[in-house]
Design a protein that fits this description.
Length: 341
Amino acid sequence: MRSSRKASVKAKCALVMALFFPAAAPACSIVYPTVSVGRTFLVHVQNEGSPVKPHRLALTRCANEACTSEKSDIRYSFTDTRGYARFDALPAGTYFLDPDRDDGISDAMYIKASPGGSDSLVVRVKWPGRAPIPVHSPSGTLRGPNYYPLREQISLSVSLLEGMSGKEIASTHTDDEGRFSFGDSVSPGMYFLRLNPSGLAAWSGEQIEGLIGIEISPKAQQADVDVDFGWSSCGLEYREQRKAPDIQTDQLCGAITDPAGAAISGANVWLLPAEAADRILGHTTSDPAGRFVLPTQLGGEYRLLVRSPGFEPFVAIIHLGQAAATSGQCRTPISVELDVL
């Protein structure tokens, strides 16, 4: 390698996405970068600064604007022990370079090959495109777009794949509350949970499916997977559920804001039993000032759920003391801040 002549190219894609839970039509737009090369170029694949080996990359020749081609127009190359893959003797044209197997939006790009281009470029690719979720074991809960408020969904088919090879280790099904487990005997390392088509449809009617990266490690702070997932025009999207602190209050009233402090109107607010998943004790929506009031309940433990399009679901346990009527002044308002998706 004539390293003194090699130029390193780190490609990034611009992503604009709005993901809604559960019903609005999610939109996703990706703008991939274009890298000009000669008839030969190298790709260096890294994960947190370490080489990824062996890993397959696909180079698809673009036969049209959508860059869809026959399988005969796809070339594959595998990274070596240092994480480098090589593509040689490319006919002039535009190609799409994509790392194999990724969750979410991969670190892909367009490659423009020409006889007058440089044959000494190294294109750097990050894989996986999204950091895997660190957990102790391959078990947990997967919640789809219509999971709340009753915390029920159809059984989902889930497979566990080795991260590097993509080999399927095992398959299982979630229960009606989204819980699954692959046991405690899986060795530490990177894996993918593959959500298989199971009859759970997206807003567009498509089957919700895709990959969720996990890193099994005894040093992980999180015991297991705890994920809300949805669908956009780019495919499966997911977020780890935020663990809101327990709330101590005597009144079931408050205000809902975004991270900038602006009021969120029209947010759905549910009061649910702390444990049971088949009853709704109260429901309301926030007013133009973001304020809400729920029906008075006996003192005890409850679950508060708040949802609004474009924001992550908010779930918190409420410890209600001697409940006071909230028809008048809200003396001890509950502050709910929704994170943007």
